[in-house]
Amino acid sequence: xxxxxxxxxxLSVPEGENLVLNCSFTDSAxxxxxxxxxxxxxxxxxxxxxxxxxREQTSGRLNASLDKSSGRSTLYIAASQPGDSATYLCAxxxxxxxxxxGPGTRLSVLP
Amino acid sequence: xxKVTQSSRYLVKRTxxxxxxxxxxxxxxxxxxxxxxxxxLGLRLIYxxxxxxxxxxxxxxxxxxxxxxxxxRFSLILESASTNQTSMYLCATGVYGYTFGSGTRLTVV
Lengths: 111, 109
Description:
heterodimer; A: mainly beta; six-stranded mixed beta sheet; B: seven-stranded mixed beta sheet; globular
């Protein structure tokens, strides 16, 4: 059964810093991996979706990579801003299976 | 873009009440899901549906039921609300990637 972990649980950085959030999964036969952002008290907003045939996806200041052999995905945020403060979750699924979610990393970007 | 609408942002209900949480999606997706999210426990899947009239139990179905009479609507039912069902409830739809609603914060008193 696929399991997803995210380390660290919380991260605090000064504004302007580039940062990397980590996501690990146990079953390398992954079908899709999705990164989400969640603001306090709100639903999840999809940031990037990486299909198994892809190595990375980019959207603005965000870049997500996928390395199936090592069971890892990273979300790179360039030039962080206070508005990036939120909880970031990753989720992975295998073919025909529901997505499994990680616990999230709570990011604080300090002005 | 897919839009997922949850009928209420905040609800306060009394113990023992029957509670209906509604979710509507506008993109003709087959798959729909209900999660609850609690601090320290993450997202937990309650029920899901791959088709109209079809429903499957997730990881924590006890105390809940669902209804899917139309493709676009997936309802979560708390048969007799209890205080341990106080939580954030999230509806999602999608196959290759999920789109979530804005969530319903339910408080049972």
